[in-house]
Queue: 2 jobs
Job 1
Amino acid sequence: MLYREAGDFKTSYVADSQTFPIKFDRYGYYVLLGFAFLVMPLIINDYWANSIVVPFLIYAIAALGLNILIGYCGQLSLGTGGFMAVGAYASYKMMTAFPELNIIFVIIIAGMVTACVGVLFGLPSLRIKGFYLAVATLAAQFFLIWLFTRTAWFYNYSPTGMISAPTREVFGVPVTGPRASAVSMYMICLCFLVASAWLARNLTRGSMGRKWMAIRDMDIAAEIIGVNPLIAKLTAFAVSSFLVGISGALLFAVYLGAAEAGEAFGIDKSFLVLFMVIIGGLGSIFGAFAGAAFLIVGPVLLKLLLVNSLGWPTDLAAHLEIMIVGALIIVFLIVEPHGIAALWRTIKEKLRLWPFPY
Amino acid sequence: MPDTLLFALEASLNGLTAGVMYALVALGFVLIFKASGIFNFAQGVLALFAALTLVGFQSGQIPFSHLINATLGTRLHHFGWNMPTVLAIPATVLVMIGLAILVERFILKHLINQEPIILFMATIGLAYFLEGFGDIMWGAEVKALDVGLPKGMSMAVDDATFNWFGYGFYIDRLEIWAAGIAAVLVAVLTVFSQYTKQGRALRAVADDHQAALSVGISLRFIWVLTWSIAGIVALVAGIMWGSKSGVQFSLSLIALKALPVLILGGFTSIPGAIVGGLIIGVGEKLFDFFMNPIIGGATENWFAYMLALVFLLFRPQGLFGERIIERV
């Protein structure tokens, strides 16, 4: 009875086109935001932050970025890991070259650098599409990782070839480096995620998002009705890479602390983020969150169940995890090609009409 | 002859033989793409799985022993006998055919009429599933595969080149064999698709699903057939790569290398897969040879993709592919 628009009158166009038109939804969203910003920092501990919450926040940003490219603009990319590496190495170079620069700006600039690299590797998308583009983005993945492991300048000639984040502070609280606490790590990732989601939501429902979707649905028809494919595709690559770069910078600077390109940003990261987008739902902001939550929390739960409760060896659990993820992808593609987001939509529709069947 | 030229020649010869290996994997891709329009990402994992199964049969491993031990607390690992290679290979072929039936039954049947990109992602899921499944079934450690193919340096090539140029080329005998087997495989596949009834049915399906159905060709049977053939090609590729560098996870990564091969050759052309494989093989060896002193090694990791990327910009349909025509 709560979940319906009856009695909730809209008197302006702005009110009618808001993100959460149903009151119950809107208040739920405010409660969730309040919980995330006010309650979580009080109850979060190191274990929760490190194994679930912080990786979820970071990968949700990456999934948002990739979802813009694949879900909204229809350009398949397998280079996410490489673009995350660009963000990480850009933030590392900025942090070491300009120690007095605030870490927030460092991460944003890292995102911009990644956006430029993304546009560069997005250029072929003007001539090729589909699988062909996937291979072109694989070129980005392998070339970038090779570049970062081979060129000593990128890791400041450190003998191990690793990059490690120095301590940087926001308002006097360390957020990167070994002294960063769980709460500060959580808060900086949360702020970036909320800002990213806000950006993604407002871009995708504006004229830019409509152009992307026109290109996705049929690029030739879109071109005929006056969408410039050059601008639409390249902006999608830029925005997507910007978010992916931010997530890479956060992953390295805040979460991992130290990283090596081939290991932390390999092709498996590209697939992980791709799976998040598919399972969550292509072309949905909520889907990016749902997919990231599913693929971050799922393995942790599985590991808890198999290794800690049943006493299985870890390698067996890891293999089973890969198997389950693969099977889930297939099941989702067959049963619900639009992912968790579509399931959620169905549930909401049912709730709205409850207790009547239709 | 100057030394550099000789070394470059040797590098390109080695590239040719490596290219044959890429072409073997690419062949499986082309077969499935031609018959079902599916871009089968799982081809590399299929090769890994086939090789794992072959080794498992040969050494008499008990399938799922790791899993059984973990759940029941037993200590099983081997049956205690070795299967001769002559038996193990047909047994593996049977497993691959069974796998093809399962794939058709549980995945493809449900995805008829979906967009190619959805099917592509489903094969990525299949790749992950098979990777985990193979590891659980046979264990994840690196295994040696020996089916009796000769290995080591080819003395004949060494002698012959030494007599001609005064410098012996190093070429693995295994790779010469691989080239021969690939040639036979291509010949057999071409004959099969041109002259047998099933082969013609296969080409009909590739041309037009609906028309093929209306003249009484069973789409589902053809799909099982294609995936079985792709499984057998994967087995051949798995045997070759497995004998060369051991059966291990990296085997499935050669599938990624086959993608640029396909782009060069065109997705629908069997000769294209071979030529593309050779170009990539020679190209990356020569590029590494000449560029190593300038930009450092390990360029093999990305050269093939970059070559494919540049190539795509000029000829999107590949060397032998059909021209892409788009309509609204």
Job 2
Amino acid sequence: MLSLDRQRETEIRIDDVSMVFGRKGREVTALSHVSFEVYRSEFVSLLGPSGCGKSTLLRLMADLLEPTSGQITIGEEVPREVRLKRKFGIVFQSPTLFEWRTVKDNIELPMEVLGLKKSEYSAISERLIDMVGLTKFKHHYPWQLSGGMQQRVAIARALSLDPPILLMDEPFSALDEFTKEKLQLDLLDIQRQTKKTIVFVTHSIPEAVFLSDRVIVMSAHPGRVHSILDMEREEGSYEQIRNSTRFHEMTAQVRSCFLIRSS
Amino acid sequence: MSGWLRKGGQSGIIVLWVLGALILWEAAAWYITDIAHVLAPASKLPYLHLVIEALIQHWPTLAEQGAITFGNSITGFLIGTAVGVILAIVMSLSRAVELTLSPYMIASQMVPIIGLAPILYGIIHDPALSRVLMAGYVTFFPVAIHMLRGLQSIRPEQEELMRSYAASVWTTYAKLRLKASLPGLFAGLKLSAPLAITASIIVELMGAPNGIGVLMLSSLYYGSSQVYMFWSTILISVVIGLIWFLLVTLAERLLTPWQPEFRQQGGGER
């Protein structure tokens, strides 16, 4: 998003959040005093090595876990209220499709759970299937699709209730390089069209730099925010962006965050 | 398991398979009787056409007694399935219940059915009920164990996903766990379908007054003159067992078309 006229309206506020797993005497601190904000319609990556608590942080936002201390507010609400109002879609590293459902049925699952009528949601799922380019495969079962196609289904499913927020936990890390690039571009397209707020967990520096408006660099043991970097994104084709000086500068800048720590 | 059932030309393959078995049988009987000149050849392996002749001749008796046995065993199989499914669901809901029940269930399967059948019949003295109970007894365990494994086979992300849709506990169970358990359920059913028939026959061998097992036993006592009758009862049991197994497989195919076994089929089915 080149336009710097972002209104910087806060969508998600993480306020001094800590997370400790395990019982007394064997505690593992996954997150220690983490604070940051995510703005509306912003693409934010949580970047860091394994053990930095980035996935935990995503699960806290999704109300799949509760913080040991600190507070998360999304809009004016706590994650639980947001979840009950189905205001976020979630995409995991594995596509997590239901293998007994076809592509269309998988995408319709959230709407079915919500209690919508088939006549109401059929058009929505058709549109989403077209958007992720799986029109020919809508009656296929997951096992008939490649990993990349399966992840497209998962993205379409996350969008089916048209939530303002998309939470993505390393969604492309299990895909081959070619598929990954294609899906990254598609995701940017989707965000351009839908203006979703996207929180994207990754351990790939180029991926974070390529996709994000801002990168939140995290460090491990215990997990905490190391620095928050603005990516000053430019428009352009994949090659243009990847070959731009800015891209390399940003990549180097992010990488230096990790170098400083290990030296 | 039922690989030869898969393809389009499956009925042709079945016909070939059955024909092959019949020809082999006839050839082996011919060798025993007319080439090797074994003593009392019919009691080892009689000619198939003579067995079929006896089967046609005794058809009214065989059909009547067969109906009793297989009717009871199917009732027992259905009851055992219901019990197995309920046990699996209850155990999937509570780890404590699972830990409490499983030793009993496993112990129950250690009792040899050949010993249990006469005990049970001695207590309740009702042949029909005994057959039903024995068939149910051998059915519930494979069904419960395999279905439970299916119920527990879901991945944490799948549950998290349902949670993110604010799905109720019941919706999550119905749309996720129950669906995921169907392949396991059918694995259990396919194991126990032939067992249920055997269990009912064993009740008859152990004292019940009627049924196909009684015909089996009495034709054994009367020696060579009844040999063809004996083989007819065996043949009928095999055929009924096969039909029952095929019915379960068919149901499996209709209800769980996504399973790997049916994948050569392509995406045509919905």
